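Supplementary Methods S3. Complex input for the pyridoxal-5'-phosphate-bound model.
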Amino acid sequence: MPVISVPQDFNSEELYVDLRSIFEHSLFLKCEGFNFAGSIKLKAAAEMVAAAERDGILRPQSVLVESSSGNLGVALSMIAASKGYQFLCVTDSRCNLSTRRLMEAFGSQVHIITEPDANGGFLGARIAHVRALCASDNRYVWLNQYANPGNWKAHYHRTAPAIAAAFPLLDVLFVGAGTTGTLMGCARYFRERHRPVRIVAVDSVGSVTFGGTPGPRMIPGLGTSVRPPLLDESYVDDVMHVDEVDTIRACHRLARKGFLFGGSTGTVVSGAMDWLAQHNAHELTAVAIAPDLGERYLDTVYQTNWTQDLYGEDILDDTDRLTVGSRSI
Ligand SMILES: Cc1ncc(COP(=O)(O)O)c(C=O)c1O
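Predicted complex, serialized as structure tokens:
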């Protein structure tokens, strides 16, 4: 029976959903949403805060500041509340209302950037705002998840070993790419142990992470408008780009079977099924990482008006049909 005194001490590493009965291929979905921050970002937040404390950067009078599309902001809000720090999250207008409310409930301040930067994305504008805050007052401490090695180390030390222990014969691992902390931590772990695991990154169409053309993206968590400094592409075997239409369809297909996951999980599952179909990979042991759960997306991914306004009237006419690239299966 786990008994805890601080919220960051609980995190489920052992739950997988076998998607074989919902999609055509066997795929084990590692569920990272079962902790008090509700997402995989708890591990990155805990690691980066611990390192900043060890290094003496974070002191009792410090004000933590971070740019986040939401989930890291929630995790840092929770840890800051637990440890007695102040926290200010810089996010943008794509951040879900419920995610913003969660941060505020933990006592954090939230600044919302509404004007995109010159690339048409929000990330550069968010980071410029963080830099301006740090220049204005030396109590601000920016952990900088985009460049902080604690971000990938959290997954090197926790996420990847948990997967390796559960699947000693793992063939392929699908990881969504935001800051690429999860991707790089897992990829480094398997590469250094000489495990023959194929690492497949899943990104959104419109993201520039792997050199694509920038385009509009509405689903937070995955994709970037500025290439992430943590990324080392030599660790990545394949990259799948997923259209947000396919993300929405995969999310709804899972929901119709009783599994309510977040938007980025739909992206990862859609990209993974596409890759497995292209590689005729029925015999492979495949794992994908589901970064969070779906309740934070009730006003977006799971709201008919939102999805129809953005992606067209017929987006959900046939959720049983999974679009794979330009084909349907
Ligand atoms: C919902 C969701 N999915 C995926 C990711 C991507 O994880 P990473 O930043 O480790 O690449 C994030 C990161 O914030 C997220 O919030």
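The radius of gyration is 19 Å. The chain has nine helices and twelve strands.
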